[in-house]
Amino acid sequence: MKYMTKQEVAEKLRVTVRTITSYTKNGLLPPPRQLGRRLLWLETELDVRILAKTSVLSIASGPAKRPGRPRKVIL
Questions:
Q1: Other CB atoms closer than 10 Å to residue 41's CB: what's the count?
Q2: How far is Cα 56 from Cα 36, in angstroms, rounded to an integer?
Q3: d(C-alpha 45, C-alpha 53), whole Å
Q4: Angstrom distance (rounded) from CA 26 to CA 43
């Protein structure tokens, strides 16, 4: 049973610390446990939540489309 700090979670997900705060508020990450002034996430809970989200995303989304102007067609 390993606990991870906000910085460690950010490094694992390759996002900023501020994004971790946003993900937690929006319910994308499980709520952290508080030990003194530190917020800690249980690594197994994070792994379960990440796997659940990625499997749903990979099933629901097709190929990604790039936004922007369509290319010119030369006739």
A1: 23
A2: 35
A3: 12
A4: 19
Look at residue 39 and give its three-state secondary structure. strand
d(CA 45, CA 41): 7
- Assign residue 14 a region: left if phi > 0, alpha if psi is -120 to 50, beta otherwise? left
| Amino acid residing at 31 | P
Calculate Rg over the CA atoms of the chain: 18
Q: Which H, E and C letters describe 3-29, residue by residue? A: EECHHHHHHHHCCCHHHHHHHHHCCCC
Q: What digits encode the pLDDT tens for the residues 35-49?
A: 999 999 999 999 888
Q: Answer whether 40's CB lies under 8 Å from 3's CB.
A: yes
Q: Residue 1: which pLDDT band, with cuts at 50, 70 and 90?
A: confident
